[in-house]
Structure formats: structure tokens, C-alpha cells
Amino acid sequence: MLNLEQELFIDGMDDILCGKINTDNATILLVDDEINNLQLLKRTFHRKYNILTAQNGLEGLKTFEENMDKIALIVSDHKMPIMDGTEFLEKVNNLAPDVVKILLTGFADVEILTDAVNKCNLFQYMLKPFEPEELTNIVNLGINKYNLTSSKAVILKDLKELFYKTIKSISSALDSKDPYTHGHSLRVTLYSLILAKEMDFDEKLLEEIETAGLLHDIGKIAIPQNILCKPGKLTDEEFAVMKSHPNNSEKLILSVKKLAGISSWLKAHHERWDGKGYPDGLKGEEIPLSSRIVAIADTYDAMTSTRSYRKALDHEVAIEEIKRCSGSQFDPNLASKFIELEQIIKAAKENPEEYYSKYSFLKKESNLKIV
Predict the structure, then answer these.
(1) Which are the contacts of 266, defined by CB distance < 8 A and separation ≥ 6?
(2) Which of 261, 269, 324, 339 is most buried, by the most CB atoms less than 10 A from its CB?
(3) Are the C-beta atoms of residues 71 and 99 closer than 8 Å to each other?
């Protein structure tokens, strides 16, 4: 038997899925240059909705811009001085495409209708004079549509936030296995993003690179603690176990549908440009681009962080080492670009949390404002 909380949750989901959303207290904007028509519209809707009014398109646009976070629906006349309804609603659509737009006109003109539908993402087109009851039904449907769209947007935002927090928590948990690698995954991700953004990658690739950076060492979860945190040099047998972590990463991530596309990237982040890396001995551009980026960032952070077996190297020493290994260990073009960015990299190293907030794509997406 369901408890009360479960029943309320299911009832709420049923309301969303069936469109039975409470439409009371929504704000609608009414725009008409004829005062009598405007008064009729206000009388029709004032008991159920919060009402804002304007007497031409320009005034309507100003009112909309000042109340963009409140307005769910607009009813606008078409033929008005200064700015007509189509131009007004087109500008609104450019600012907030999810706001529901209804156009009223005294002329049954196919060209006006076609123009409005194409430019304004119009919800409905009505001829004057209109029946208040008919317009009320259309407005109610429009508010319902707006609330459904907003609900989906909120759910999507929540899912993105959950995804970001989960990925970041996993990477932090991995780093915590070894006290000497605290913050390693975040810094590797940060350096990777700085390099990737400088190369003007699209947002989808930036999201994938960020995810790959945060999870690049997830395979180490299967590495025994005594090997992972050993203070001295690893034996050949221990090093063979350590080298299994890229394969482990691929296996762990491959089963997660959203992450499957980056599984091969995680596997390849210890490959070398000259083909002498592991686990598959990939060479040059056989290595996925994001793996080549993460490889440079990973090596830089390893060199500039204190480990159980040595102290951190200076930034300048690490940069010289990346320069020396360009064309052998690292993609020479990426290494050259990384070196060009060394001052930004150095500043990010000294204040990683602040810089991560600037460069993170996943964090930015999870914090999107939903209106």
C-alpha cells in the first residue's frame, strides 16, 4: 500500500502528464491600442490571472522586458501604431521563445497569419470580434502549455545539476583514496578546459572533455591501496597492475549510456604521440583528441603536485618538460598551445576553484536560470 507522500507524488506526476496544472495566478500581458478592447480583455481575465497591459507594441516590449521572469502568455492585437503585433511578438520570441503568444486581428489575411506563425512561434491566431469564452479557453490551454514547458525545463535543469554533482563527487572520492592526489581530477579537468576553450571547441565537445577530465582516473578504484599509495618505486608487477586503470575506466563507463561515448577517451589518456604509451600503443592522431588534451593536463598536474615519492616541481620546470616531450609524448600542436597558455595555467594552478567556476561547462549548465 502506498503511503500519503507516495500518493501525493503520483498525483502530482499525473497532473503534469495529463496537463492538469494549476493555472491560477499566472501573469499575462495584454496589448491593444484600442482602449475599449483592452478593457474587455482585462474584464475577461482579471479574476483568474495577474494582468499587465500596454497600448502599442513598443510599450508592450518595454513592459515585457521589465517583467520577463513573470509573464507566461501574451495576447496582442496585430494592427497598432509605432510597432505592430507581428513585429512585437517576433522580438518577444527572440528574447523568450517559451512564452505563449496569441495574435488578434480584425482582418482574415493569410499573409499576416503566415508571417506571424513563421516569425513569432505563434500559439494561436484569432479574428476580431472574438467570443470571450473562446479566447478564455485558448488562454487556459496556452498557460497549460507554458507550465508544461517550464516543468520540463526545471526537470532538465535538475538532471543536469544531479549529473554534474555526481560526476564531481565520483572524481573527489577517487582523489581521496590517495591523500597526495587531493584535487587532482579537478585540476586536470581545469587545465584541459583552458586548452580546449582556447581552441574554440563547440559546447558538446567541451562538456565531454570536462566529463572525461573528471573521470579520467576512475579505473583506479580497482587498484589496491598499497600500490596506489606506495611511497617508493613500483615493482614491474605493481606497475603492470597500475597500468590496468585505463582499461578499467573504459569498462566502468561503457555501460553508462550517457557516458559511453567518452569511454575510449578515458582508456587512451596514457597513450603517447610516438606510439610508446599504453594500453594499446596508439600513435599520433589515432589517439582521440580529448585523450591527447587530458594527457598534457594530467602530466602537468602530476609534475607540479607533491607525491608520496617526491616533492612538486616548479611550474617553469614542468613547462620545460612538456616542451621537451612535444612530438614524442605529446601532440606537438597541443603542447605548443599549452605552453602559450602557461601564465593562465599557472594562475589556475594557484587558485583552481576560482578558475574552475569560470571555465566549467557542466557547472554553468547546472546553474542555468529557469524562467
Answers:
(1) 212, 215, 216, 218, 219, 246, 249, 250, 253, 291
(2) 269
(3) yes
CA atoms of 179 and 123, how far apart (whole Å):
58
Distance CA 290, CA 295 (A): 8
Instruction: Name residue 96's amino acid.
Output: A
β-pair partners for 77 = 104
H-only helix segments in the chain: 4-18, 35-45, 57-66, 85-95, 110-120, 132-175, 184-198, 203-215, 225-228, 236-242, 245-254, 263-267, 289-303, 315-324, 332-340, 342-350, 352-359, 361-366
**Is the whole-model pTM more than 0.70?**
no
By the 8 A CB rule, do 234 and 227 touch? yes
What is the mean predicted confidence (pLDDT) over 112-124?
A: 75
* Domains of the chain (ranges, CATH numbers): 4-152 (3.40.50.2300), 176-366 (1.10.3210.10)
Q: Which residues carry out catalysis?
A: 220
Q: What is the pLDDT of residue 174?
A: 66
Contact 31, 88 (CB under 8 A): yes
Q: What is the pLDDT of residues 329-357, one digit of tens each?
A: 999 999 999 999 999 999 999 999 899 88
Three-class SS of residue 279? Answer: coil
Q: How far apart, in whole angstroms, are the C-alpha atoms of residue 121 and residue 74?
A: 12
Residues 193 and 213: beta-carbon distance below 8 Å:
yes
Which cell is 117 given?
506563425
**Cell representation of residue 345:** 595555467
Q: How far is CA 301 from the centre of its chain?
A: 26
CA atoms of 310 and 243, how far apart (whole Å): 20
What is the identity of the amino acid at 290?
S
> Is the pLDDT higher at 82 or at 181?
82
Give me the mean pLDDT over the 150-175 stretch: 62
Q: DSSP letter string over 115-135?
A: HHHHHH--SEEEESS--HHHH
